[in-house]
Amino acid sequence: MQKTIRKYFPIFVLPTFIAFGFAFLIPFVSGLYLSFCKFTTMLNPEWVGIKNYINIFSNRDFINAFYFTVKFAVASIISINFFAFVLALVLTRKVKGTNLFRTVFFMPNLIGGIILGYIWQSMINAVLAQYETTLVANATYGYWGLVILMNWQLTGYLMIIYIAGLQNISGDLIEAARIDGASPWQLLTNIKIPMVMPSITICLFVSVSNCFKLFDQNLALTAGAPSKKTAMMSLDIYNTIYGSTGTEGVGQAKAVIFFILVGAIALVQLMITKKREVEQ
Amino acid sequence: MSKRKTVVNSILLVVLCILTGIFLTPICFIVLNSFKGKLYISDAPFAMPTEETFSGLTNYINGIEKTNFFAAFGWSLFITVFSIIAISIFASMTAYYLTRVKTKMTKLLYYMFTFSMIIPFQMVMLSMVRLANGAHLNNPVGMVVLYLGFGGGLSVFMFCGFVKSIPLEIEEAAMIDGCNPLQTYFRIVMPILKPTAISVSILNAMWIWNDFLLPYLVIGVATDYKTIPVVVQYLIGSYGSRDMGAMMALLVLSIIPIIIFYLFCQKYIIEGVVAGAVKG
């Protein structure tokens, strides 16, 4: 059977592969190459070795963006996962109207980053206007604005994953623990949390990946203002490439570093997932 | 015990209702203000429109005229619908081939598709946009090709996971009865893949509908093919003298289709998200 199917390669694989080549494969390889070149259009790349990588550090933009991203990610990941888990615990208790609450909490996740960013921008500005200031007056406002926005968007999503995890715990196990006299707190720490560890891993990495790659919300909410202080890594790369001419190569070099960073995070996730599969 | 649980649940119900209110505040805020005259919005941002400030549908008419919103809606719909159709057909065919034909090449292809999931967009952005312009993909049909390439990674990966679980015997029987691989695929395998195809479509629809950077860079703002996120950014993207009223109306208009879609397909959306999170 394998032999018969094999002849059909052009029909089964080629369409996807060609599209994949245009969207990923060729740009990826050429992106790697261009990070070692000086160029303004793609027709005149000139090999400059690692000069672009050195030039990244000629100003502090990228390093600042990195710190800001990490600071934002840490606060968001902890708060989002905490709220999502608590909500999931509450919504698996058979409170009235569970479905309605789940629907509402998940909804912001479907709204696109640009639209979401502008909704919050106008609302935060409306609040700050009462104190005669604006969102872009102070980097702290932008920082907390982003954290709150991210909580609003992602909590419902992670909550859904936690709910699925909690519902997978067998009722017998919880019943047995209750008969043995476990308190609700013991039930939570000794049964529920260990049993949803797979969901916790998934949620941690979903939130890490979302926070690190965040672009649309960042652009819409503050666009990096004031003076690039609230620009995250994606936005800084975008600005380096499209914001000024002559720095395209440096921007591409930043993108390669960003890719290695994101790739390393994904690799750690893969290793943890694999390890757990072995243990089970 | 039971009585205590009832009391706790009642308290939780109240807390959940308050939380729902907080979650809905940003939405209520833009709906409320979209009906106020543009000069009144910054005066009392959280007040209901009064007789003096109420402006009827003026903001909506302004917003729609300024951005040609219905055209944007049409192009967003066109790109999203055809992209998910293309992905459902071609990515599942590719996944079928990669799972059933075991050679070094299919293994390599599978790893390439999986690998592409972790590459951040910024890494390929610069080269891809130029390549797309050179290959005349800077139109809605070209966008469908690009989305097939971008959505391909996750989709092939998810389809592969499911094809593995289909027993070979069914296909062998079909082949013995005289079906060629294409007939076998479309008559036997694809109907079995339907639930996975729905999950994959939902996941892709969610990000393609909201995607901003790809259409913004490839199609640009100077054409008639702008999508919803692009017109939103185009209208309100810069600080300065912006029409707050039209902005509020446009934000409301942008989320209406999403909310309608969500209310009708809620079950599939939540299932799709859980399936995608567990596998991705």
Kindly describe this structure.
The complex is a heterodimer of chains A (280) and B (280). With 280 residues, chain A is an all-alpha fold. Chain A contains 14 helices and 2 strands, in the order H-H-H-E-E-H-H-H-H-H-H-H-H-H-H-H. Chain A has 2 domains: 51 residues, no CATH class; 221 residues, Orthogonal Bundle (MetI-like fold). In chain A, 74% of the residues lie in helices and 1% in strands. In chain A, helix 5 runs antiparallel to helix 11 and helix 11 packs antiparallel against helix 14. Chain A is globular. The model of chain A has no long low-confidence stretch (mean pLDDT 88). Chain B is globular, with a radius of gyration of 24 Å. Chains A and B meet through helix 1, helix 2, helix 3, helix 6 and helix 7 of A and helix 1, helix 3, helix 4, helix 5 and helix 6 of B.
List the helices and strands and how they pair.
The complex is a heterodimer of chains A (280) and B (280).
Chain A: H1 2-6, H2 9-12, H3 14-34, E1 37-38, E2 46-47, H4 51-55, H5 61-91, H6 98-106, H7 113-129, H8 139-167, H9 171-179, H10 184-195, H11 197-213, H12 216-221, H13 233-242, H14 248-279
Antiparallel strand pairs in A: 1-2
Helix pairs in contact in A: 5-8, 5-11, 5-13, 6-8, 8-11, 11-14, 13-14
Chain B: H1 2-34, H2 58-67, H3 69-100, H4 104-116, H5 121-134, H6 140-163, H7 168-176, H8 181-210, H9 213-218, H10 228-236, H11 244-279
Helix pairs in contact in B: 1-11, 2-11, 3-4, 3-6, 3-8, 4-6, 6-8, 7-8, 8-11, 10-11
Structural features:
heterodimer; A: 280 residues; MetI-like fold; B: 280 residues; mainly alpha
Q: What is the CATH architecture assignment of the largest domain in chain A?
A: Orthogonal Bundle
**What is the strand content of chain A?**
under 5%
Kindly report the CATH topology of chain B: MetI-like fold
Query: What's the multimeric state?
Result: heterodimer
Terminal residue distance of chain B: 41 Å
The portion of residues assigned to helices of chain A is: over 70%
The two chains with the largest interface, and their residue counts, are:
A-B, 89 and 98 residues
Output the CATH topology of the largest domain in chain A: MetI-like fold
CATH class value of the largest domain in chain A: Mainly Alpha
The CATH architecture category of chain B equals Orthogonal Bundle
CATH top-level class of chain B: Mainly Alpha
Mean pLDDT of chain B: 87
Count of domains of chain A:
2
Report strand % of chain B.
under 5%
